[in-house]
């Protein structure tokens, strides 16, 4: 019996590597920002074994700084400040020298899977669901329940949350299918329909100020990308102008 085509998009060539179609524009921007004689970009996956499962979906990038750097910590901070606003997520928690400080991921549209599960208090399921979604989207999921997980993946993409991408068609998945108008459609047919639907648009929220309050605690705040901070006694003020990261060290 012929296996159903589950992937919504293809893996396409970029240099000697392969990436999802929706990453080609980003790869062009990265080439423009980082000349190869200064920073080389590797796509982990086929040619190089990735650090994480997300690499098998072409969404793990390695950045190698080619030019001489006296202070690697400073170089990493500079790298973060450029990559985070472009939508890349560093694998390490802090911009400090580490054996895996060169690893970054492109969550892309699957950021919503990660964020939703974190918001629901199921953070332990966020990373495996993110990886499953990225793999299902390009038809590379090699585990069980491929059609079911692919349906859950595409429900997330069009704005109907089925919860964890686990292949179980439970109450949340059934509710998401009803919301998408597909409750009476066989799963394989529903997947074909979902793959053709446009993703849900996330409305832009106005940029706001934030605060970190840590009275009586010795701390240091590090901000990157579209987030800047002003340290003050007992905390820090944050100004958010775009995607970024805030790291607070407590001592």
Describe the 3D structure.
This protein has 251 residues and is of the alpha+beta class. The chain folds into 3 domains: 11-106, no CATH class; 120-196, no CATH class; 209-250, no CATH class. It contains 7 helices and 9 strands, in the order ββαββαββαααααβββ. The strands form 3 sheets. Strands 3-4-6-5 form a 4-stranded antiparallel beta sheet, with helices on one face. The protein has a 3-stranded antiparallel beta sheet with strand order 7-9-8. Strands 1-2 form a two-stranded antiparallel sheet. Strand 1 (11-14) and strand 2 (17-20) form a beta hairpin. The chain starts with 10 loop residues before the first strand and ends with a strand.
What's the pLDDT, averaged over the residues?
90
Strand content range: 15-25%
Structural class: alpha+beta
Note the run of SSEs as H and E: EEHEEHEEHHHHHEEE
Q: How many separate structural domains?
A: 3
Order of strands across the biggest sheet?
Answer: 3-4-6-5
- Given as residue ranges, the uncertain stretches (5+ residues, pLDDT < 50) are none
Shape: globular
Q: How would a textbook summarize the main sheet?
A: 4 strands, antiparallel
DSSP strand tally: 9
Give the arrangement of secondary structure elements.
Blueprint: E1 11-14, E2 17-20, H1 24-33, E3 39-43, E4 60-65, H2 72-83, E5 88-90, E6 103-106, H3 111-119, H4 126-137, H5 146-157, H6 171-179, H7 187-196, E7 209-213, E8 219-232, E9 235-250
Antiparallel strand pairs: 1-2, 3-4, 4-6, 5-6, 7-9, 8-9
Helix pairs in contact: 3-4, 4-5, 5-7
């Amino acid at each position: 019996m012929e296996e159903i085509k589950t992937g919504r998009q293809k893996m396409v060539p970029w240099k000697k590597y392969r990436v999802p179609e929706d990453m080609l524009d980003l790869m062009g921007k990265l080439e423009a920002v980082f000349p190869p004689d200064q920073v080389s970009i590797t796509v982990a996956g086929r040619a190089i074994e990735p650090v994480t499962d997300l690499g098998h979906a072409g969404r793990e990038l390695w950045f190698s700084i080619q030019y001489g750097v006296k202070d690697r910590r400073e170089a990493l901070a500079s790298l973060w400040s450029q990559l985070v606003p472009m939508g890349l997520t560093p694998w390490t928690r802090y911009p400090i020298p580490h054996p895996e400080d060169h690893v970054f991921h492109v969550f892309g549209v699957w950021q919503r899977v990660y964020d939703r599960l974190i918001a629901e208090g199921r953070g332990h399921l966020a990373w495996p669901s993110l990886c499953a979604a990225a793999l299902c989207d390009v038809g590379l999921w090699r585990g069980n329940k491929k059609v079911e997980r692919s349906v859950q993946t595409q429900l997330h993409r069009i704005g109907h949350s089925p919860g964890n991408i686990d292949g179980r068609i439970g109450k949340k998945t059934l509710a998401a299918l009803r919301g998408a108008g597909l409750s009476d459609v066989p799963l394989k047919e529903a997947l074909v329909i979902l793959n053709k639907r446009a993703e849900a648009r996330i409305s832009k929220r106005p940029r706001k100020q934030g605060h970190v309050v840590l009275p009586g605690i010795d701390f240091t705040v590090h901000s990157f990308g579209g987030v800047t901070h002003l340290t003050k006694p007992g905390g820090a003020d944050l100004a958010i102008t775009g995607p970024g990261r805030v790291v607070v060290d407590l001592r």
